[in-house]
Amino acid sequence: MRLIGWVAFLASCTVPVFANDTTAQMTTGGLEFVSHGEIAMESEELFISREEIRVTYRFRNDGTEDHSILVAFPMPEIVPDHFSPVAYPTGPEDNLFEFETTFNGEPVAVELHEYAYASGVDRTKLLRQLDLPLYPMGDAATEKTAALGAEELEKLLFYGLVMPDEFDMGEGWETRYWPSWTYKATYTWEATFPAGETVTVEHRYVPSVGGTVGVALLSEPFEGYDPAEEYRTRYCTDDAFKAAVRKSLRDPNEPWSAPFYESWISYILTTGGNWAGGAIENFRLVVDKGSPQNLVSFCGEGVSKIGPTTFAMVRTDFWPEQELNILILERQPDM
Question: Whole-model pTM?
Answer without folding.
Answer: 0.73
